[in-house]
C-alpha cells in the first residue's frame, strides 16, 4: 500500500512536475492536433498556450474559415509560411461585392490549394453590381463556389490546367466561356445558376454532368465521353424544353422536368432514368389543378411533354398521381395512347384521405365516356398499382387495362387497409380478376399495425386472403379457413382440422 502522503498528492492531482509535455511533442503531431480543431479561428487561439504554439497554425495543409470576414481571411492567408495548401474552405457570412470577391479569390490563388471551396448565402452588397474575375488556379483540382447571385467571368489569361471537379451554385456564369479553359474537367455541377439565353456546354473530357436550372433558354450539350448525367429543368415558358443533347457514350442518365398545367391535371415533373443494361424508365408526377392555377401562357399538353423526352421509346412508365378524388382513367388512357409500347406500368395513387370531386368536375362529365375505349398495349406484361381502393372509376380502369393489354402476365394491387375482404369494393375487384384467370395477380393490403401484414391474392381466379401475424399466418383459401404457423425449419398448415408439414 502506498504511503498516506502519496495518496493525498494523487487525489489533489499535484503530483506532476509542472512541465508542458504537450508543447514538447514533435511539430508534426502538434499540427495534427491543430487540424482536428476544425477551424482556423480555433487553431489561432492556441497561440496563447505558449510560445511553442504561436504561429504554428500557419504550417497547416488544410484550412477552414467559418463565418469569416473577407479581410480577415485575406490577412490570415498572407501569414502562411508553409508550402501550398491541400484544402482551403471559406464560409463568408457578410455581403460581398464582386470586386471584394475577386480579391478573396486572388488571395486564395496565392496559396495554391488543391481543393478550394468558397460559400456564402447573404447576397451581394447594395453596390454589388459587376462581375468577379476568376483567377488562374493552375494547381486546383476541385473548385466549388456557392455565392448567391455572384456573376463570374473566366480569367483574362491562363487555364485551369489541373481542374477535374467544378461545382457552381447560385452563380451567374456562362459555361461556354469557362469550359474551354478546363481541358481536364471530368465532373461538372451547375446548380440553380443563372445561365445565358443561348447556353453552349461543350467539353471533350467531361464524364459526369449535373445540371439544374430554368429552361427558358436554348441549351446545347456536346460531350462525346460523358458517362453519367443528371438534368433537372423547370419549364417556365410556353415553348417547353429547348435543348440539343449529344452524348453517345452515356451509360446512366436522369432527365427531370418540372411543368405547369395540363388540362385538369398539373404535370408537376417528368423524369427519365437510363442505366446501361436496364430498361429505360420514365416517371411522371401529376396532381389536379384549381381555377386559380389556370393560365394559358403556362399550359402544356401531354404530347408536347412526351415529345421532349430524350428517351421517347421508354419501356417502363411510373405514374405518381395525387388524385384528390378525381377520375384519373381518362388522363392515363390518353397518356397510354401517346406511348403504347411500354412493357411495365407502375401507378402510385396518393390520397391523404378519400375525397369525391365536385359534381360539375370535368373529369366526370357525360361526354367523357372513356370506360368503353381501349388502346393496343400489346407489349405490356407487368402492371403494379399502389393505393387502389375499388371505387367504380378505378374498377373501370382495371377493366380497361385487362381489355387493352392482351399479353399481360402479372398484375399487383396494393389496397388500403380500409378495404376488407368482406367489403363490396373488395368483392368487385375480385370479380374483375376472376374474369382473367390467365393473369397472375396479387393484391396486397397495407398493414393495420406493425405486428400484422395483410395480403390478398388471386391465383387463376382462386381467392387467397392472408394475414401475417407474429405467431403465424391466418389464411382463407377458396373459402376454407386455415392457420399457417411459421417456424424456423418448417411451415405447419392446419385446414379444417387436417394438418400437414411442409419443409422450407
Automatic annotation (TrEMBL):
<dbReference type="InterPro" id="IPR055312">
    <property type="entry name" value="FBL15-like"/>
</dbReference>
<feature type="region of interest" description="Disordered">
    <location>
        <begin position="1"/>
        <end position="21"/>
    </location>
</feature>
<dbReference type="InterPro" id="IPR001810">
    <property type="entry name" value="F-box_dom"/>
</dbReference>
<feature type="domain" description="F-box">
    <location>
        <begin position="22"/>
        <end position="60"/>
    </location>
</feature>
<dbReference type="InterPro" id="IPR036047">
    <property type="entry name" value="F-box-like_dom_sf"/>
</dbReference>
<dbReference type="InterPro" id="IPR006566">
    <property type="entry name" value="FBD"/>
</dbReference>
<dbReference type="Pfam" id="PF00646">
    <property type="entry name" value="F-box"/>
</dbReference>
<dbReference type="Pfam" id="PF08387">
    <property type="entry name" value="FBD"/>
</dbReference>
<protein>
    <recommendedName>
        <fullName>F-box domain-containing protein</fullName>
    </recommendedName>
</protein>
<feature type="compositionally biased region" description="Basic and acidic residues">
    <location>
        <begin position="1"/>
        <end position="20"/>
    </location>
</feature>
<feature type="domain" description="FBD">
    <location>
        <begin position="377"/>
        <end position="413"/>
    </location>
</feature>
Amino acid at each position: 500500500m502506498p504511503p498516506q502522503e502519496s495518496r493525498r498528492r494523487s487525489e489533489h492531482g499535484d503530483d506532476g512536475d509542472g512541465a508542458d509535455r504537450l508543447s514538447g511533442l514533435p511539430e508534426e503531431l502538434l499540427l495534427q492536433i491543430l487540424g482536428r480543431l476544425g477551424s482556423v479561428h480555433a487553431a489561432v487561439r492556441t497561440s496563447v498556450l505558449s510560445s511553442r504554439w504561436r504561429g504554428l497554425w500557419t504550417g497547416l495543409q488544410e484550412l477552414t474559415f467559418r463565418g469569416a470576414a473577407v479581410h480577415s481571411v485575406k490577412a490570415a492567408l498572407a501569414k502562411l509560411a508553409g508550402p501550398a495548401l491541400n484544402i482551403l474552405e471559406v464560409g463568408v457570412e457578410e455581403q460581398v461585392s464582386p470586386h471584394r470577391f475577386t480579391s478573396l479569390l486572388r488571395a486564395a490563388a496565392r496559396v495554391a490549394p488543391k481543393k478550394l471551396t468558397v460559400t456564402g448565402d447573404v447576397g451581394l452588397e447594395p453596390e454589388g453590381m459587376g462581375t468577379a474575375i476568376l483567377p488562374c488556379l493552375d494547381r486546383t483540382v476541385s473548385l466549388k463556389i456557392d455565392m448567391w447571385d455572384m456573376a463570374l467571368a473566366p480569367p483574362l489569361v491562363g487555364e485551369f490546367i489541373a481542374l477535374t471537379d467544378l461545382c457552381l451554385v447560385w452563380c451567374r456564369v456562362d459555361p461556354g466561356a469557362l469550359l474551354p479553359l478546363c481541358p481536364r474537367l471530368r465532373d461538372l455541377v451547375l446548380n440553380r445558376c443563372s445561365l445565358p439565353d443561348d447556353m453552349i456546354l461543350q467539353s471533350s473530357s467531361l464524364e459526369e454532368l449535373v445540371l439544374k436550372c430554368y429552361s427558358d433558354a436554348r441549351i446545347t450539350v456536346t460531350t462525346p465521353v460523358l458517362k453519367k448525367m443528371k438534368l433537372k429543368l423547370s419549364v417556365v415558358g410556353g415553348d417547353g424544353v429547348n435543348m440539343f443533347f449529344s452524348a453517345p457514350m452515356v451509360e446512366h442518365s436522369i432527365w427531370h422536368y418540372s411543368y405547369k398545367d395540363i388540362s385538369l391535371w398539373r404535370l408537376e415533373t417528368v423524369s427519365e432514368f437510363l442505366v446501361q443494361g436496364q430498361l429505360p424508365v420514365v416517371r411522371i408526377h401529376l396532381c389536379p389543378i384549381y381555377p386559380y392555377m389556370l393560365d394559358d401562357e403556362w399550359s402544356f399538353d401531354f404530347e408536347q411533354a412526351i415529345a421532349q423526352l430524350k428517351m421517347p421509346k421508354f419501356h417502363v412508365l411510373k405514374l405518381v398521381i395525387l388524385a384528390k378524388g378525381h377520375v384519373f382513367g381518362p388522363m392515363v388512357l390518353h397518356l397510354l395512347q401517346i406511348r403504347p409500347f411500354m412493357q411495365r406500368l407502375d401507378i402510385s395513387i396518393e390520397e391523404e384521405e378519400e375525397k369525391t370531386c365536385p359534381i360539375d368536375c370535368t373529369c366526370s362529365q357525360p361526354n367523357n365516356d372513356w370506360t368503353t375505349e381501349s388502346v393496343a398495349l400489346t407489349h405490356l406484361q407487368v402492371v403494379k398499382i399502389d393505393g387502389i381502393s375499388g371505387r367504380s372509376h378505378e374498377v373501370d380502369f382495371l377493366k380497361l387495362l385487362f381489355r387493352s393489354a392482351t399479353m399481360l402476365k402479372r398484375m399487383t394491387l396494393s389496397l388500403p387497409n380500409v378495404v376488407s375482404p368482406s367489403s363490396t369494393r373488395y368483392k368487385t375487384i375480385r370479380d374483375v380478376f376472376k374474369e382473367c384467370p390467365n393473369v397472375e395477380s396479387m393484391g396486397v393490403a397495407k398493414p393495420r399495425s406493425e405486428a400484422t401484414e395483410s395480403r390478398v391474392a388471386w391465383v387463376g381466379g382462386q381467392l387467397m386472403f392472408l394475414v401475417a401475424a407474429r405467431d403465424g399466418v391466418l389464411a382463407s383459401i377458396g373459402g376454407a379457413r386455415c392457420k399457417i404457423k411459421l417456424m424456423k425449419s418448417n411451415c405447419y398448415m392446419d385446414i379444417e382440422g387436417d394438418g400437414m408439414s411442409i419443409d422450407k
